[in-house]
Specification:
The complex is a heterodimer of chains A (461) and B (445). Chain A is mainly α. In chain A, 67% of the residues lie in helices and 6% in strands. Chain A folds into three domains: 122 residues, Alpha Horseshoe (MgtE N-terminal fold); 111 residues, CBS-domain (Roll), CATH 3.10.580.10; 189 residues, Orthogonal Bundle (Tetracycline Repressor, domain 2). Chain A is built from 23 helices and six strands. Chain A has a three-stranded mixed β-sheet. Chain B has 445 residues and is mainly alpha-helical. Chain B contains 22 helices and six strands. In chain B, the strands form two sheets. Chain B has a three-stranded mixed β-sheet. Chain B has a three-stranded mixed β-sheet with strand order 4-5-6. In chain B, strand 5 and strand 6 form a beta hairpin. The radius of gyration of chain B is 30 Å and the shape is elongated. The N and C termini of chain B lie far apart (74 Å). The chains are: A mainly alpha (461), B mainly alpha (445). The interface between A and B is large, with 110 and 108 residues.
Amino acid sequence: MLPKKDVLLIKHFVLNKSDEAQKILANLHPADIAQILSEIKNGNKKLFFQMMTSSKAAEVLEEFEPYDRLPIIEEMTEAETVKILENMSVDEIIDLFQQMPTAQAESLLRKLPKEDYDVLKSLLKMAEDTAGGLMTTDYVYIFADATVSEAINDVRQFGHKAETIYYIYVVDNNKHLKGVLSLRELITAPRDKRIHEIMHTNIVSVHVDQDQEEVAKVISRYSLLAVPVVNDSNRLLGIVTVDDAMEVIEEENTEDIHRMAGITPEEDTAMSRTIWGASKKRLLWLVICLIGDMLSGSVIDSFSHVLESMVTLSFFIPVLMATGGNVGTQSLALAVRGIATEKLSRKNLFKFILGETLAGLQLGVICGGIVALLAYLWQNNPQLSMAVGLSMGISLILASLIGVLVPLLLRLLHVDPAVASGPFITTIVDISTLAVYFTVSTHLLDLLSPDAVSTLKEVLA
Amino acid sequence: MNWSEQIREALHEKNYDKLYSLLEQCHPVDIAQLMEELSDDESINLFSTLEFDIALQVLEELDSNKKHLVLTNLEYNYACKLVQEMSADEMADLLGDLEEDDKRQILSLLGESKDELIDLLSYARNTAGGRMTTEFIAFPKELKAKDALDKLAELAVDAETIYYVYVVDSQGRLVGVVSLRDLILAPEETPIGDIMQTDVKKVNAQQEQEEVARLIQKYGFLALPVVDDNNVLLGIVTVDDAMTVVEEETTEDILKLSGSNVDEDMDVGQVSIWARAKRRLPWILLAICGEIISGRVIDDFSSALQTIVALSFFIPVLMDMGGNVGTQSAAIIVRGLATGELKTLSIAKNVLREAAVGIILGIVNGLLVAVITYLWQGQMLLGLVVGISMTFNLTFAAMLGTFFPLLWYKLGKDPAVASGPLVTSILDVVGLLIYFSTATWILKL
């Protein structure tokens, strides 16, 4: 992060179009320039871009989220934009075009050099969240019969535009992927060796249609700097680099955390940032839970005779409901995260479920004991405190089971386990907790009125 | 039959030719994963058939217990050789995970190269120092590009990454960085001082690992240098470590948000139940105390409840919805703070914005619940009570859910801690107060 003083100074220089500005901007990291720019009023942003070389301007523009690039581009003339686009890597241009109205993208596309036009045109057809949508076509490739010194020369010659030169891909005449070599291996190899003698043929690659989350996982799992993207016939189409994988992982993590809290993930657009947009993505689960909670209410309703004869019972509804919800959410968090990080596998699944059940039992015993004691001290009614404690114990075991089993079940049905949000689990747990509470207390407190007996029978049936 | 079954079979039949040819096609990461699933004997057998270079890579991928098992069951000299080739950060992680006795066993394999390790072990595990490796490449700035490349080729075998070359002065202080890319593309005779970047992004060894990961991600680096207070280069953290950190921190945030304390290494497979329960108990117990207060609120209004027992039917929906909205707000703030995407850190601005969201959520859900109440109970006024309470409740929930994590953050604490259960407990008390006050006022109880 830049010190505040520097930021102010740089802003001052640029906005006054001082000569110093060009020199300063040339030495700044693109990410830092982007940060300064985010504080600049629309309309003045173009001043910054006019003071940078096109390649620097391209790097800076790449730092912005795709939807934030649009307003900046709108400040510039089309000629200026095209110059910057020529210096951007193809995967970034694709991200940008996908945010634009088709007509605008098309008109910009036509102004780009012919070879870029063809590549971009075919890339634009790929789905955004697949390997194809994420990849770039700027990589270094060589042929298997080249010598090491020829290969190094190739890297020198074509390396300027490539997204990474640290992996070099070996292909045949039809661009079928034959091997891969790291730059490290290349420069440490004897100069007169042939590439096919030193290349790896055991290649980790991804299919062009593979989901972006899986692509990121492959990169992270094998600690790669980039992974090659191939089609059905193993033709090399592009590469996905580790920085893109990091972004995908961050996005997916945000989605997971939001889903856990019952927020529907949405593509980040200008719309989703307004207050109404922010509310909209939270409404779906709230409404579902609201209706679920009505079921909790009707459980109370069916025991209302019990409640009428002993209103004290209602004092413990909050503590039972909330604790059940808390325990359920905790178990849910463990399960969802275990699945997401692949730490939970078929092998330790049973152990995990058993462990959670036992943990629920233990929490149930401890919390049940404590709440029974509190209830006794407060109401001085041994039967009541027993009912509350026992209900707490049973409902916590159920809560931890629900928290674990629901996401696992969804996983089994190939639904994203994070769909089971905390609020959703809490709602289910509440229904079970209230049913347990009133059933236990009617038995223990011997409060059954004739009416309640028939209602209870209905409920049980 | 897939390859893992074939390998198992080959192991079982002691068919080593088949085993060799099978293993040849496997990535070390996959072999390591298979070993995690095998029994102790099987995995030791499998490991001892691996070639040294592969064995080393497989070893790095194993978890600490398996590493210990393998190292202590191999032939002593071979184990020594493996251990000495392991990178120092890897070793420090392993030692950090092991019990005292096991640690001593491994240290005995290490022989003399202990000193460096002891330095590394002195950093807390979740800091830049604890995450870094000391196998980096640093040159003086007078070195010519061509000579640097030659030297690099020699050093490449041991270095964690050769894609960044760090430039240091005679005291070992970091003055610049050159990427291998720039080095290879530069004219051969240029001193690296001329092509290096002097605006080097770096972190102090004491800095938290989260910050390191964020910098690597922000600037798209493959590695980030770690320095001490005098700017002396100590080590580097690489991008693959940063990815691990990102995953770990997300897990931590999710668990903390749900009110579990988190220790260093979460192993979902572990069955030490007491350990599991202990992590979760503190916040639950605190919440229980909070909810007893909610009970007291109901107690205060028990005469109202006795008059209209139907009031109790809506306790669950009001309590739950408040908790839900509060959790949503807390999740948004916690995640926003973690990714640095939060527009402003001002508590007032965020709380106000969330209040606006809360009002919208409150009105929509308030209307909905009022209609349902009316349809269910046939009482217009009761519907009104529930609807109004819902609206106030959710607005307040959104504000409180925003306020707490930000307050924690400003106080220098982890914003994710306790935002869930704590916020929910407070909301329940307040929510019930609002509900019963509205009820006594409107229904004139």
